[in-house]
Design brief:
Length: 227
């Protein structure tokens, strides 16, 4: 293998080592999140409390497996393994691109769907407060549109933070409603989601190209051995 092939091999190996580490960190982070909310049992249809940590956990496992495949293919110079990795990376690139386009074009619909989810949780708070408490603690909000949705009496402790033992309407008034809090969070982070997604898609495309180059170099080296 020539110098260019060796360079591609070790760049691809180091690149995937970093992703193996990222996968492990995501697995650990998802496991910690899942254990912290393990006491919440009842979940309404529109809002799945465990969905985020489970998605993070699964994503971490997928990243770990794919990156490990790339590491093995690169360091062992296995063309089959490397081509499999490159096909997976290209598929991920296409999926990532489709997801970015979907988020870009369906921003209003996604926001409306999440508003509906929060409204459903709010409407069913009498049967199960745990999910609404989780939303109020996560978004530092109170009520659906404002703390006055609870009336003028005491409000849930989640409106004043995780360490609150009691909470009055006066203490909760500075907090926005959960609908408004989510809309602000979405508006603040939508550009980050878009451009971070484009960045990840770009990295996946580069990994695909490098993997194809390495697989081609390995195949050519194997052919030359027979001549």
């Amino acid at each position: 293998m020539d110098c260019g092939g060796v360079f591609v091999k070790y760049v691809l190996f180091i690149f995937n080592i970093l992703f193996v580490i990222c996968g492990i960190l995501l697995i650990v982070f998802g496991s910690i999140m899942l254990s912290n909310i393990g006491d919440i049992k009842n979940v309404v249809n529109a809002y799945e409390t465990h969905s985020v940590p489970i998605v993070i956990l699964v994503l971490g496992c997928v990243i770990f497996v794919i990156a490990f495949l790339g590491c093995c293919g690169a360091i062992r110079e296995n063309s089959c393994c490397t081509m499999t990795y490159s096909v997976i990376m290209f598929a991920l690139f296409l999926c990532q691109l489709a997801l970015i386009i979907f988020i870009w074009t369906q921003r209003a619909n996604i926001l409306q769907a999440m508003d509906n989810a929060i409204k459903t949780v709010w409407d069913q708070r009498q049967n199960d407060r745990s999910v609404m408490d989780g939303i109020e603690l996560s978004f530092k909000c109170c009520g659906y549109t404002s703390p006055t949705d609870y009336g003028m009496g005491p409000v849930p402790n989640s409106c004043c933070g995780p360490s609150a033992t009691s909470c009055s309407i006066v203490e909760a008034l500075p907090r926005p409603g959960c609908k408004t809090a989510f809309e602000r969070m979405w508006s603040k982070n939508i550009d980050i989601i878009r451009y971070a997604g484009l960045g990840v898609a770009g990295v996946e495309l580069i990994a695909f190209i490098f993997a194809c180059c390495l697989a081609n170099q390995v195949r050519n080296a194997r052919r030359r051995e027979y001549y």
